C-alpha cells in the first residue's frame, strides 16, 4: 500500500476588498510623499535661484555704493548704504575692508556700526581680487553661521581711461584701468523665508492627507459597489450547489461582470441539460427508451406503499421473451436489438397509460399494472400475451413470431419488499416456461412456488448478512501458460461458508439476482480481490487476478468509479485485474456492455469472455467486444481427449483468437492428455484440477514451475 498522502494545507484566505484598498492606499501615500518631497526641493531651489539673482543685483549696487565710501564722501556713501540695507530686511550686516582685507567698519541691519569686525578671509580676498573688473564680481557662501545664512562678498573698484585713451578715435574701444579700493561683505539671513516655507509644506501635506482619505473612502465605496454583484453571484452559486429548483444570477452594470454572469448562465443551462440527460440515462434503458431496473424498483416501492396504505390491489407482470437467444445467435446482435425495441413498443401499446413498463435486463421486461384484481390481472396478462404473439419480425428473409412467458404477482395490503414481489413474479414466469412457454402463470402462495420464495427469502437474508459481516470468501485457482508451463495468474472463486458447509455460487446467485443483490456482491468480490493483490504483491510482484462479475455489473453506473477508488485506496494498478463476464451475459446486456467495458479498460483492467462458444454466433462478437482473453466453454474441454468435434472446435477457436490478437484459456483441464492437446492446438492457458485445485491463497512465487509427474503445482 502507498503511504498516506499528507492533507494539503488550505490556501490562505485573501480579501479582494482589503488588497485593492491597500494597494490604492500605498500608491497614494507613496505619490503623496514624492509630491511633498518634490515640493520641498522645488521650493528650496526657487529660494536659491532667487538668492543668486538678488546676489548679482546687490553686488553691482554695493560696488557702486562702496566706491565713494573709499574716496571722498564717506558720509554720503554710508547714508546710501543705510538706505540700501533698509530696502532689504534679509541683510543682517555689511562690512567694508581695505585692499589688504582689514576690516574698516561694519554696519548692522538696524543701523548699528561696529569697528571690531574680523578681517576678510585670505582665500576669499585672493579670489575676489582676481575678479576685479568682472561682472558680477561676487562670491556667495552658504551656512556661514547657524541657520540658513549666506555671505555675499565682492570687490570694490574704480575704472578709468588710460592716458592714451583720451585721444582715441574710438572711446568705446579705449583701454581702461581698474583700481581695487577694497572689499565688502554682506551677511544675509533667509531663515524667515524658509521658516515660512515649512508651515506651507505642512499645510500642503495635510491637504494631501485629507485628499488621500477622501480617495480611500471613495475607492472603498466604489469597490464595495463593484463587488456587490459578486456577493449576489456567490449567493446564487450557493443556491445552485444546494440544488435549488431555480437560480437567478444578478445583473451588473459592469461589462466584465456581465460577461461572467452570461458565462455562468450558459454553463448552468449546459449543466442542467447534462444533469437531465444523466438522470434520464440513470433511469432509462438506452436501447428501448423504457425505464430501467433501478427506476422500476423505486416505482414499485411507491406502489407497494400505496397499496398497503389504501388496501388497493395491483399486479406485477414479469415478461420473458421465449427463444430470444435463438434470434441473437441466428441473425446477430443488431437483429436482437431491433426485436427488443419492437417488444418494448408492443408492451407500451398493450397496457394502459397509468401502467408502468420497464426493461428489467436482457430479454426480460416488467409491467406494473395498477388497481386490478386477481382476475383482472390474469385477463390483462393474457391480452399482453396475445398482442406480443401477434408481433412478427422479419430479418434476412426469416420470419420470427414473438412469443413470451408471463409471471404475475399480486400487490396487496401486505407489507413486503419490492424484491420479494419481483422474486414472486420471476418464479411464476419460470414456472410458465417450465410448463411449455408462451403462457401466463400467476404466483401462488401455496405449493412449490411458495417453497421457492421461502427458500429465496432465506437465501436473501443469508446473503445480506454475509455482505454486512464480510462472511464471503475467495478461493484462488491457478492458470498455467501452456508453452512455458509456468503459472500465469489466478482466478478468484466466490464461496459462502455456512453452518452446514460451504455454498457454491450456483446455489445462491439466482436468489441474489431475483432480490437485486448482484451489484453488491460484484462490488464485494472486486474489493476483496484488490485487497488480496495489495497483500500479496510485495511477495509476488507479477501477480494478476482474474475475477468474475455478473452481467448486472454492466448496469451498475457507479461500478467504474467505485473500482477506481478501491484501486487508489490500496495502491494497486488496474492492470492487475482481469474481469470475466460470460458470453451469454455480454449478449444479454449488450446495450450497456460496450460503454462499461470502455470505462473499466480506462482503469487499465483487462477483460475476458467466459464460456465462449456456447452461442451460435460467438465469433461475431469478437469484432465488437474489446476483450483480451477468451475462456473456451468447458463443454468442449471435458471430452476433448476423445471427441473429434470438440477437438475441431477448440482448434478453430484458437486459430480465430490468434488472428484477432486475443489469448485463449481452456478450463476444466483434468488430464495430461487434454493438456497436451491444448499445447498442440495453440491454446495459451490451461485451468483445471490437473493444473491445481482452488486454494485459500496463491503460491508466493513470481514464477511457479509445474511438476506434471506429481500432477501438482510446486
What do you see in this structure?
- With 714 residues, this protein is α/β, with parallel strands linked by helices.
- The chain has 3 domains: 17-165 and 177-195, PAS domain (Beta-Lactamase, 2-Layer Sandwich), CATH 3.30.450.20; 284-443, Reverse transcriptase/Diguanylate cyclase domain (Alpha-Beta Plaits), CATH 3.30.70.270; 461-713, TIM Barrel.
- It is 48% helix and 20% strand.
- It has 18 helices and 24 strands.
- The chain has an 8-stranded mixed beta barrel.
- A hairpin with a 2-residue loop joins strand 15 and strand 16.
- The longest helix has 55 residues, at 16-70.
- The protein is elongated, with a radius of gyration of 54 Å.
- The two termini are 28 Å apart.
Structural key phrases:
six-stranded antiparallel sheet, disordered C terminus, Alpha-Beta Plaits, eight-stranded mixed β-barrel, 714 residues, 3 domains, TIM Barrel, Beta-Lactamase
* Strand ordering within the main sheet: 14-15-17-18-19-20-21-22
Q: What's the CATH architecture name of the largest domain?
A: Alpha-Beta Barrel
> Major beta sheet, specifics?
8 strands, mixed, barrel
Tell me the Rg in angstroms. 54 Å
Number of E strands: 24
CATH C-level name of the largest domain: Alpha Beta
The secondary-structure class comes to alpha/beta
Strand content: 15-25%
Tally the helices.
18
CATH-defined fold name of the largest domain: TIM Barrel
